[in-house]
Amino acid sequence: MKHKIFNYAAGFLTLALITTSCVTDDDLTQLDPNNDSVDKFWKTDQDALEGINATYSSLLTDGTYMRSTPLLLDVKADDSRTNSPWGSMYNVGHFNTNVADPAIYGWAYETYYQGIFRANQVLTNVPKIAFTDAALKNRILGQAYFLRGLYLFHAVNMFKNVPLPTEIAVYYPQKTQEEGWAQVIADFKAAADLLPTSYAGISGIDAGEKGRATKGAALGYLGKAYLFTKDFTNAKTTFKQVIDLGVYSLVANYRDNFTDTNENNSESLFEVQFSRAAGGVELGWGGIPASNWGKTSARAITYAPRAFGWTDVQPSWALFNEFHDEATTTGAVDPRLDATMFYNKPGGMQLYGQDFATKYAGNQADLNDLFCAKYQNSDGNYADEYDWRSGINERLLRYADILLMYAESLNETGDTPGAYTYIQMVRSRVGLPNLATAKPGLSQAAMREQIGHERFLEFALEGHRFDDIRRWGWLEDGAKLAWLKSRDNEFNSYAPGREFFPIPQLDMDNNPGMVQNPSY
Question: Is residue 2 over pLDDT 60?
């Protein structure tokens, strides 16, 4: 048999040598008849719209806002804690992520770069299309810049020194975090120049579609990138541009920002669109989307109270206690407490159609514990979260954040008195006293502390707190770090460098020249 195979191979080689001179380059270019979509795509306005839609879809998978990204943003902070039996998640909350185990952080990293790749396809191919609607072309390019900026924002913010793909190539060299922030800023600037304020008043095949990136969203994230890089002057100017658009306002009911009953409201600058009614019933765990994938989130079951979901994330007692630091003007407890967490409230509290005290009466540990209420389908329409199918949109950027970041920028540029006005807009919604009366004449340093307190309560369990801790330099401040440890024992596991996640080993292996982040 070996002899026959050798003779066959030798004969084939001889035939190949004889016929080589007859083969042209065109003969070597073969199209797979089952996969020629690339050559037929990127021809029409509709193709361009579908291309940008695919770029949005990377926001819906497990690596991003279906589950992993909220976890990565939340569980290191002092507003939350995790005793998850899943070691990968427990380790994130205890600053002990393992390079050998890419679960959660590696999935996020992979999906950010999937989204970046899709955005780059749009930015590469859409300019070549002869559009019938020139304004649509600008909107699609603006969305591509915005989404690339958003995915890069997460990559740079959480992984520090990362590749910065701005075109389609095989390898992308690792860049510094400073270079990363510069690219994020450039993308959001480009997006802001191209995007409309709203899709309600436009004509075109995307007219009236909610959830698409707008000028306000691009400016909001641009200001945030300036703030994170301590460019307070540009941050102040950019946040004021958002305010001056005149299209955003705080909703009357704080809780409306975390349910499926008032989505895409006046307070929302950008949110990820989830729906129980869209798509199939399978969850988007990652990779190439399939036709049976749904558009639902697994955040609710992951954060859900005991017996209603997995309870992998819980509020901290430091958060619970700080909500009691200041009463409303009527002497009541800050109403954001009940919108943020479930607890054994005097007088009773309902969750999933049941009374808290009655539900947990047989278990003293649970009866005296705290559970997450934000982003839970807990109003009684559903018995629990075990179907893994939450349709609640993830609010990535709220107007309240713009107001408090603007106040911070004013304080950092010397206008501490001016910061009061914008802080009070957020406080007034929940009935807190006038800060200018309660704490008049705060110094710049004291106002920094006050803004830290305001942000802690307003954005609890929304993925902002650890970003704030890191950018404010608290981890390098011995007194602040000791304070964090005193209120959240998870910080006892912190080591310098662990404020960032490691570069996944797969990328280290496949991308020549990559250097791992310190402490890993």
Answer: no
